[in-house]
Amino acid sequence: MPDQIFLLGNLVIMVAYAAIMVAIVVPVARAGQLRTNRLATATALIFFSCAVGHGLHAVMAYRTVMQVPAAHQMHMDGTGWPWTSALWDLFTAAVGVYYWTLRRGYGVLLGKGAIYVDPWGQHRLDEADARERAARDAAEAHRATLATVVEHTDDAVVGVTPEGLITAWNGGAERLFGYTAEEVLGQPAAMLADETGSGQQADVLARIRQGERGMAYETRRLCKDGTLVDVALTITPIHDQAGAVIGASAVARDVTAAKEAAERQRAIEERSNQAQRMESLGKLAGGVAHDFNNILAIIANYTDFVVEETADQPDVQADLTQVRTAVERATNLTRQLLTFTRAEAIQPQDVDLNAAVTEVQMMLERTIGEHINLIAVPSPQPLTVHADPGQLQQVLLNLAINARDAMPEGGTLVLEANCAALDGNEVNMQPPLPAGTYARLLVSDTGEGMSPETAARIFEPFYTTKPQGRGTGLGLATVYGIVTEAGGSVNVYSELGIGTTFRIYLPLVTTAADTATSPPVSGQAPPRGDGSTVLVVEDEPALARVIARILTNGGYHVLTAANATEALDLYGQHGCDALLTDVIMPGSSGRRLAELLLERQPDLPVLYMSGYSNGLLGTTHILDEDIAFLEKPFTAADLLHKLAATREKSPSHVQQ
Fold first, then answer.
1. In this predicted model, what pLDDT tens digit does every residue of 578-619 receive, in sequence order?
2. Cα 200 → chain centroid
3. What is the pLDDT of residues 214-265, one digit of tens each?
4. pLDDT (average), residues 133-156
5. Average pLDDT in the 445-462 region?
6. Consecutive H or E run containing 197
7. Contact criterion met (CB below 8 Å) for 51 and 25
8. What residues contact 116, with CB distance under 8 A and at least 6 apart?
């Protein structure tokens, strides 16, 4: 019985060792390491030798069990079976020694699952572990850097749950909204929005929960101190590994300053476009006014001729009076056009604003009506500006008349003068002014007011809201032209049903200037010409005939030319005692003609006339002090007085 158990045990052990050997050899061979992985090969060899050794023991046990005859058994023993088994056991021991020598030489500390790892494979595993650790360290460093960037960025970064509870709050959010992280974490994000913003916020979160990828929009959010701030929001959903939405990130950027800058730029562009439109209209209107003034001069003077010849016909005189009145109205209209286009020759001087306000107040008290309560508030300190006094008066009268028309049922009109300091960044000035202190005129009423659309167009020429026949649309365009010509600006504030305030800003005069002006023309008859020769240069034939008739009746000898070439020929033949020339003519200008004649006769008196100077009388559109100018249309008395005054100022007359 023991022999059978011994046989069975050796067979089982043999099979087990053979199976272990196969389990080692097959994966090592598949990995291509059968030759290189000597430690695995040595291990497999141990199990192989053990399996063979136990196989030999099983053979001998089998022989015993089968009771081989003793003689034959001795013969078999003689053949060396026991020795074979013993030698094989020695071989197995040698393999074991070889295995332990390898393990000791490699210095391999075997762990779980590492019994078949060779040193080169272990090296590669170590390198892989090192790379994995380096990747983990880099990822941690990246996350730390990203967290630092998010924390210190100027943009607000806020994390919320799908239901809108705040879960993350960076430093930018604290600076933008004023709340610390402790104050908002776990609170609903609706605390950062007003009523309108809360509904919008709920809609955005609902769309995020429904799977929308993200969105960007501009809105307003509420800060801790109660102020509203304009922000640009970018909302992005946050997903877990399964793809489910677990929250949202909101990046908010303060765009208040950017929107203000964009609005300021838009206002500047709008003012620039308006200035270009007004300049184009001004050129057109100025050209029309120039030609129209020539026609008015003809009509006015021929009317005066007929008045002189029909003194004994009262009915004709009455009709001519109506014609003269119409001419004066047309003259005022063209003067407004020229003022708007900055083409009217003006004579600026230092003007006391308080005196100007008082003078206009006295004029309005007699004419504005009892239903208007007129109040004048002068400045407590003297205010002096450099402007044409007549035009300054025209500005105040135009604004006062507009205010009266805006109060048909009565109201209050206030004229006020004071000082104002500007920082240069005002966006509602037309045109803008640099920083500084300015004199300010205010004309306020409690009338009907204007809509923003109307207020934006009131300075356009020919634009009016008055009924047909009640206004020309040039009043405020004229105000704009006068104020800008004086280096100032206009500001308008109006509300429907409340009233309107015009603010006129003008540069202050800080030093005393020469305010001497030409003495007014007296009502006396103009002096006679005593046969002096006047060279008249006018390209409008009808007007040239009118001027020649006036001068001839005034005692002058007249030479008439239509252009500079004819004038030079006439001067070369006859000479002259004075030159009366239009400013704008075909070919050479009147100014150039005068320069050529003054080279030949330096003391020649020169009188310019024009309905539209176009800047040819001075680089600043203002008459130079040494230039005599007569504005069209003019009367016979105006012409004769101005010509006499010009001759009296000439060097030749002074020497006499």
1. 999 988 777 788 888 998 999 999 999 999 887 654 343 444
2. 28
3. 888 888 888 888 888 888 988 889 888 888 888 888 898 888 888 877 877 7
4. 73
5. 78
6. helix 195-209
7. no
8. 24, 27, 28, 37, 39, 40, 43
Q: Which residues contact 21 (CB under 8 A, 6 or more apart)?
A: 44, 47, 48, 51
Residue with the two structure tokens 């002074």: 654
308: number of Cβ within 10 Å: 10
Residue 571 has pLDDT above 90, yes or no: yes
Task: Name every residue whose Cβ is closer than 8 Å to that of residue 439 and which is 6 or more positions away in sequence.
Answer: 353, 379, 383, 384, 385, 417, 418, 419, 420, 505, 506, 507, 508
Binned at pLDDT 50, 70 and 90, residue 533 comes out as very high
- CA triple 101-104-106, angle to 5 deg: 105
For residue 113, the surrounding DSSP H or E stretch is none
Determine the Cα–Cα distance for residues 170 and 354; give it in Å rounded to an integer.
Answer: 60
- Specify the pLDDT at position 564: 92
Q: Tell me the C-alpha distance between 306 and 319, whole Å.
A: 11
Residue 62 has pLDDT above 90, yes or no: no
From residue 522, alpha-carbon distances to 388, 608, 637, 653 in Å are 21, 21, 10, 21
Cα-trace Rg, the chain: 55
What string of H, E and C letters represents the secondary structure of 425-476? CCCCCECCCCCEEEEEEEEEECCCCCCHHHHCCCCCCCCCCCCCCCCCCCHH
Residue 238 identity (one-letter amino acid): I
Q: Note every long-range contact of 256-259, with CB atoms under 8 Å and residues 24 or more positions apart, other chains counting.
A: 256/229, 256/230, 259/230
pTM to 2 decimals?
A: 0.40
Strand order, beta sheet including 436-445: 372-377, 411-422, 436-445, 499-507, 489-495
Helix ranges, 153-194 (H): 171-177, 181-184
Find where tokens 């998010």 sit.
150
What value does the mean pLDDT of the chain take?
78
Under 8 Å between Cβ of 491 and 429 = yes
| Nearby residues of 57 by Cβ (< 8 Å), 6 or more positions away | 6, 10, 85
Identity of the residue numbered 34: L
Kind of pairing between the strands at 533-537 and 578-582: parallel
Residue 120 CB-density burial (10 A; 0-12 exposed, 13-18 middle, 19+ buried): exposed
C-alpha pair distances (Å), 392 with each of 293, 331, 389, 501: 23, 19, 5, 17
Tokens of 582: 């239009």
Exposed / middle / buried, residue 57 (Cβ in 10 Å: 0-12, 13-18, 19+): buried
Closest CA to 230 of 252, 250, 248: 252
**Minimal CA–CA distance to 509: which of 630, 379, 386, 650?**
386
Q: Which helix (H) or strand (E) holds 98?
A: helix 81-106
Note if the bond before 314 is cis, omega within 30 degrees.
Answer: no
Closest CA to 628 of 611, 612, 647: 647
Task: Tell me how far CA of residue 115 lies from CA of 20, 98, 108, in angstroms.
Answer: 13, 16, 9
Q: Read off the tokens for 398.
A: 């135009």
Residue 460, judged by CB atoms within 10 A of its CB (0-12, 13-18, 19+), counts as middle
Tell me how far apart the terminal alpha carbons of the chain are, to the nearest angstrom: 174
- Packing angle of the helix pair 590-600, 564-574 (nearest 10 deg): 20
Omega prior to 633 cis, within 30 of 0: yes
